[in-house]
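Q: I'm writing up a methods section and want to include an example of the input and output format. Could you take the sequence below and give the corresponding predicted C-alpha cells, formatted cleanly so I can copy it straight into the document?
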Amino acid sequence: MSAVVLICATLLMSDGDSGRCVTADGERHRVRLAGIDAGEVAPHTRCRHRPDVWACSPVARSTASGAAARARQLASAGARCTITDIDRYRRNVAVCMVRGRDLGAQLVREGLAISEMNFGDPYRRQEDQAQRERRGVWR
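A: Here is the clean output for your methods example:
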C-alpha cells in the first residue's frame, strides 16, 4: 500500500502543530504534524481536559503564539504532507515538507515545539540542538 500524500496549495496553520491543508481544488483536510508538540494557543481547549500535558505548561504556552506565527510563515506557500496516521480527533497525522524541508523538524530545531516522545521521539537530534543553543522554549 502506498502512502497518501496531500499536496497543499496552502497549509493554514492554526497553531504550531496543526492546521488545514487546502488543495488546489479547494478541498480542506485537517492536519496534525507528526512527531511534534507545540504550546496550546487560546482558547486552550485541550488544556481544560488535559492540563498536565507539556503543551499546557506555562513555558509552552508562552511560546505558542510565536510557534503558530512561524508555522504559518513557513507553510504559507504550501506543503507536501505524507499521512502517517489518523488521530483521535480524526485529523490526518502527517509529515509535511515545505520547500523540501520537514516543517516539524524546523519548528523543533527553532525551539518552538518539542519532539513527541509518545510517538517515537523522531526529532530528538533537533530538540537537543535547540536546547544547546537555548532557542525558544529552551531559553
